[in-house]
Specification:
Blueprint lengths: L3 H4 L1 H21 L3 E8 L3 E6 L10 E4 L15 E6 L26 E5 L22 E4 L6 E5 L2 E5 L22 E2 L2 E2 L21
Antiparallel strand pairs: 1-2, 1-4, 2-3, 4-5, 6-7, 7-8, 9-10
């Protein structure tokens, strides 16, 4: 039986397949794995495992670990790590309805993805927090969407029922005002001057 692999090549092939499956499971059970995003549906990613191995790893779909208050613009090519989980967490991520049984057993599908910073990305000041958006920019908004700040390339939009600025305001460039403007309690469109007959200089604004 020692030379069965030579007489019957299918035996050797099945043996190699079994060994590959065992090695893959052991590697996946061993802990954290590097991965690159293939696609992102807004909740979970499909990733390729980045490990040099004779084993052909399958693509893994995993939820992204992040706060519900910060939505990350994960895109194809983003790098990160897969961490093994004892149980499935789909119900926590809104992808399932039933909580898993409390049986700590590893399964290849029970993994979660955490994005990582890449060394060749834009260098930033270590003493400053940067929020860098995707191709459509970055958005900060209230839970009810009544107040929104959107930062795009070359443009910032602020939308709110009331905007307060406490401090000096310096503006360089053109100011385009749509709507009313009140200065010291006086409506700009209805104010008058003490000398309005093309005199020079004109007087101060006459209080209403």
């Amino acid at each position: 039986m020692i030379d069965d692999g030579l007489k019957y090549p299918i035996f050797e092939s099945l043996k190699q397949t079994a060994e590959n499956m065992v090695n893959m499971r052991q590697n996946l059970n061993s802990g954290i794995l590097p991965a690159i995003v293939e696609s992102f549906d807004g909740v979970s990613v499909t990733v390729n495992i980045e490990v040099s191995s004779k084993t052909a790893y399958p693509k893994i779909q995993a939820p992204v670990l992040s706060s519900e208050y910060i939505r990350l613009p994960i895109q194809k090519g983003c790098r990160g790590i897969l961490i093994p989980l004892s149980v499935n967490i789909e119900h926590i991520c809104g992808l399932g309805q039933t909580a898993p049984e409390n049986v700590p057993t590893f399964n290849i599908s029970n993994m979660a993805f955490i994005p990582c910073y890449y060394a060749t990305q834009e260098k930033v000041d270590n003493d400053t927090i940067y929020i860098i958006g995707g191709k459509n920019g970055a958005v900060i908004r209230s839970s009810g969407k009544s107040s929104i700040i959107k930062c795009e390339n070359g443009k910032i939009t602020i939308k709110a029922d009331s905007i307060s600025i406490d401090g000096d305001l310096n503006i360089k460039g053109k100011v385009d005002i749509k709507g009313g403007l009140t200065i010291n309690g006086i409506d700009f469109m209805s104010h008058t001057h003490s000398n309005g007959n093309m005199g020079s200089p004109t007087g101060a604004v006459i209080p209403a």
